[in-house]
Amino acid sequence: MSANTPGHSRGLKKTHKATIAGVAALSAAALTLSLVQGNGGSTETEPQALSGTQQVAWSYNAASPQAKALAASVTEQQTTIGLKAKQEAAAKAKADAKAKADAQAAAKAKAAAKAKADAQAAANAKAAAKAKAAAKAKADAKKRAAEKAAASRSVARTPVFANNLDGWIREALFIMDKHNIPGTYNGLHKNIMRESSGNPRAINNWDINAINGVPSKGLLQVIYPTFKAYHIPGTKFDQYDPVANLVAAANYAADRYGSIDNVNSAY
């Protein structure tokens, strides 16, 4: 096969080609010689003419120094060629093994780098989630603290009212102020005196409302439908409760008359 035939690992080097050519020439020369038996001397054969060209054939004695040198030269060259081939094959195997080891090392390094990057990403995500949870917990705690403080301030700002007519009026005014319901102490007091004389359990059982089944009750004599419609959340849902009664009545008077202060008769 030629050096360019597919499947051949590589072509012969120039030095190999020259050496092989030399060996071939020597071998060809040796084959043109004829071995002779006898006393170890050499004789010349009769020259012959071949196709017009005269060639000389030499007799050959294997024991002669020339023959031994020729054989040694051929053997040495064959040995050199084999040795070089082995060395080159070993070098190629070594290079292939190194390339394979390098590829394996690169793959291992790449896998290790990916594992490290994945671990770092997971750690970062975990840290971010932890930080987010901590921030939320902190914000929630801050919000609860603010709400608690606000509730405490609200409690602290809420005065304690006496459980009597003066205290009921003052507490009603405190609640009315929070809900923007107009009215004054005097406006509430004068209507209380006219309607119930300050009795939170007062009830009217003889007027038209009583006849209709909805008697007026409490300090400002409020009927149930009016109390229900104008009741302020945060006060008791009870017509007889003095503060709830005053606030609901003041809310109704503000809606109908502008203020409880403008009411000077039955309303």
TrEMBL record:
<dbReference type="Pfam" id="PF01464">
    <property type="entry name" value="SLT"/>
</dbReference>
<feature type="domain" description="Transglycosylase SLT">
    <location>
        <begin position="192"/>
        <end position="264"/>
    </location>
</feature>
<protein>
    <recommendedName>
        <fullName>Transglycosylase SLT domain-containing protein</fullName>
    </recommendedName>
</protein>
<dbReference type="InterPro" id="IPR023346">
    <property type="entry name" value="Lysozyme-like_dom_sf"/>
</dbReference>
<dbReference type="InterPro" id="IPR008258">
    <property type="entry name" value="Transglycosylase_SLT_dom_1"/>
</dbReference>
